[in-house]
Amino acid sequence: MLGFLAFIPRAVAQGIPLLFGCTGEIVTEKSGNLNLGLPGVMYVGAISGVIGSFFYENSVGAGEVNAALAILIPLMCSIVGSLIMGLIYSFLVVTFRANQNVTGLAMTTFGVGFGNFFGGSLIKLAKTDLPSISLSKTSMVFRSQLPFAKSLGVIGEIFFSYGFLAYTAVIIALIVAYVFKKTRVGLNLRAVGENPATADAAGINVTKYKYLATCIGCVIAGLGGLYYVMDYACGIWSNDAFGDRGWLAIALVIFTLWKSDLGIFASILFGGLYILYLYIPTGMEHMEFKELYKMIPYVVTLVVLIFTSMRNRREDQPPQSLGLNYFREER
Amino acid sequence: MDSKQKEPLIHLTKRGGVSKKKAMMIRVLAVIVALIVCAIVTGLTTGINPLGVYSSIIAGAFGSARKTWITFQDVSILLIIALSLTIAFRMRFWNIGGEGQVLMGGLGAAACMICLDGKLPNAVVMILMLISSVFLGALWGFIPALCKALWNTNETLSTLMMNYIATQLVLFFTIMWEVPKGSGKIGIINQNSHTGWLPQVFGSKYLLPILVAAVVTAFVYVYIKYTKHGYEIRVVGESPKTSVYVGINVSKVFIRTMLVSGGLCGLTGLLLVGGINHTLTSTIADGRGFTAVLVSWMAQFNPFAMIVTSFIIVFMDRGAGEIATQFDLNQSFGDILTGIILFFIIGCEFFINYEIHLRKKTTKKEEAKAC
Fold first, then answer.
1. Cα separation of B24 and B252, whole Å?
2. What residue spans define the domains of chain B?
3. How many CB atoms are closer than 10 A to CB A7?
4. For residues A318 and A308, what is the distance between their CA atoms, to the nearest angstrom?
5. A249 touches chain B (CB under 8 A)
6. What is the DSSP pairing of strand B10-14 with strand B354-358?
7. What top-level class would CATH report for the domain B66-312?
8. Is the pLDDT of residue B371 over 50?
9. How many CB atoms are closer than 10 A to CB B12?
10. Looking at chain B, which residue has its C-alpha nearest residue A118?
11. Is residue A44 within 8 Å of residue A81, measured between CB atoms?
């Protein structure tokens, strides 16, 4: 039992980057853009934050960091970085009507390369003599918990032991769910994703909605990268450490059937599955089975994808025009 | 008074058809602009003289005989994967599971090499390797195709998931077969007996994949253009409704085509494991399943144009690798340059497919006429 309680906070910490990515991708996909560049966007979001905070920490030197600046600078850098990625994608896909799969994959190539290159060469390029990128001061600020968390025992451990970005992720997911379900903007956006020609006829500015949704989605996803490096990885950047979490976030979108409020629990579940192997006694003899446990999220997603297409319920389907571009004069 | 809405500043129309020469010119122009941007980016981030960058890139790809051979070997591997994906793309089936299909092919080959070493004659092992790798690759193509045929499951997402299932399976077997125990690596398989090592052709260890790539290119070209299967694939791709009307069994075409597509990817896995690396790792496909999508698309699904596009990608990648080692930078620099070039090539398709009309300045006379 105690083991399980200790498991939950770690599953949540694993799940938060996925939740950011999943929510961002849901917003993007609801506008009909299948952004396969999500892993790249998350890398860029992470490394942009790292670059910002790296220069800030360097300028401060050995002194104390200002808590507000230590959060604001990486946060703004991360947002700008992923926003640029979102703009590149929307420009190519919405304005230039390029193939979405191809553009997305190119973005992933670029973004992951960008992250690994600057992660690996930042120290050399900035001509400092540090051994590695370790932003412990910034990370401390990002990981600061609520003051009463420690005094609440197990409950505090499960609910209040995270940095502020974790709560932001949950709040954003709830807001997104609310916007889609209850507001006019959400309805319009859904219309754009389902049938842009109809939306256009109803007077909705399709281009504007697609641009906004894709860029906002990218910014949200980029925050997932920032959370990963600043909070989960304690401010230490190592190349390729982020791994395939971006793809896992895309899997989550399917798993949750494009519902971001479900995403909160699903991402924690996936986060748990991601580290489940650490808690299942396989013995040192059979380390190979942990790889099979890591396979579970993907298999589960595939099964969900197949089941929803089998049942063919209309509300569970992907947005109808997902992956297709809209050109008004082509009817 | 003037309540009349202005005509929009930019007006787009779809081009009916563009001469091949003009389309080619636009593409070449895009690549040149991309190369210039790449040089500027390299100069800004690393402080290297942009002209020096290109001489290093050429040195990286063709600096020595060995480097040249490896460049062509890499081109051919990427080409085979792109060709196999193309077969599926021609019927608008977005197979982005090349990565997984290659990995499964590699797994099949490695399994035969490891388990049958010394038990069967070398020739038999090789035939079994061929069968098992093509079979496993085809199986990885078959599952998404079956789901698409039966329940119209989104194939982009299902093939994507199959990639990671394959990766984890390979990791599972890597640890099962690891040598020595606990290293997490298989190491060179059959280092002494050379069982299952694909033969050298004409005394060169680099030539086999290149020959296979040539054969596959010709095969895919003929298969799509001159066979009944190819015709059915093209009809399904152009219009599924038409194909139902003319009596083509769409489900059957999906499944059959993906078996071929996956099988060819599996064959690439065999080449990688049996012919080039002689080992199995989860990164043996090295993202080429995804890069191949770009290669195929950039070539507009034309098998011969793919030779050029895969060459551009490999050339830049190896060149950037050279820059990275020469200037002591991170290897990922190549990905950034490749990404930039891709953005430009993707963007330039717009100018091929669409025509831009700027708003004409209306003269007084015309305005009067309009009133």
1. 36
2. 66-312
3. 15
4. 10
5. no
6. antiparallel
7. mainly alpha
8. no
9. 17
10. B330
11. yes
Closest CB to A302 among B158, B176, B291: B158
The token duo for A240 is 């390729």
Return the ∠ at Cα A36 (arms to B100 and A270), rounded to 5°.
70
> Domain map of chain A by residue range?
15-242
pLDDT tens-digit profile of A181-191?
999 999 999 99
Q: Structure tokens of B323? A: 């820059």
Helices (H), B152-277: 155-176, 207-226, 228-238, 240-245, 250-270
| pLDDT for the residue A132 | 67
Query: What does the alpha-carbon distance between residue B302 and residue B251 come to, in Å, rounded to a whole number?
Result: 25
Contact assignment for A329 to B340 by CB distance below 8 Å: no
Residue to substitute from B161, B172, B185, interface A, most A β-carbons within 10 A: B161
Which is higher by pLDDT, A135 or B141? B141
- With contact defined as beta carbons under 8 Å apart, do A103 and A92 qualify? yes
Contact A302 B12 (CB under 8 A): no
Distances (CA, A) of B178 to B2, B186, B278: 79, 4, 14
Max CA separation in chain A (angstroms): 64
| Beta carbons of A107 and A25 less than 8 angstroms apart | no
- Reported ipTM: the value is 0.84
Instruction: State the average pLDDT over residues A302-328.
Output: 81
User: Which chain A residues are Cβ-neighbours of B346 within 8 angstroms?
Assistant: 92, 96, 98-99, 102-103, 106
Cross-chain CB nearest to B343 (options A92, A114, A294): A92
Of A25, A13, A14, the C-alpha closest to A252 is A25
Token duo for residue A310 = 């089998």
Give the pLDDT confidence of A87-96 residue by residue, as tens digits: 999 999 998 8
Task: Return the H-helix or E-strand segment holding A108.
Answer: helix A100-126
d(CA B36, CA B59): 18
Judged by phi (left if over 0) then psi (alpha if -120 to 50, else beta), residue B252 lies in: alpha
Q: Using an 8 Å Cβ cutoff, are A19 and A173 in contact? A: yes
Is the CB of A128 inside 8 Å of chain B's CB atoms? no
Count chain A–chain B contacts defined by CB atoms under 8 A.
Answer: 173
| Amino acid identity for residue A61 in this structure | G
CB nearest to B342's CB, from A106, A121, A239: A106
Tell me the C-alpha distance between A296 and A271, whole Å.
11
Residues shown for chain A: 331
pLDDT in tens, A216-250: 999 999 999 999 988 887 777 777 777 788 888 88
Render A141-195 in DSSP notation, one character per residue.
HHTPPPTTTGGGHHHHHHHS-S-HHHHHHHHHHHHHHHHHHH-HHHHHHHHHHH-
Q: What do you get for the CA distance between the two ends of chain A, in Å?
A: 60
CA distance B160 to A281: 30
DSSP conformation class of B3? -
3-state secondary structure of B11: strand
Is B87:B257 a contact under the CB 8 Å cutoff? Answer: yes
Q: How far apart are CA B162 and CA A99, in angstroms?
A: 22
Mean pLDDT of chain B: 83
Task: Output the pTM of the full model.
Answer: 0.85
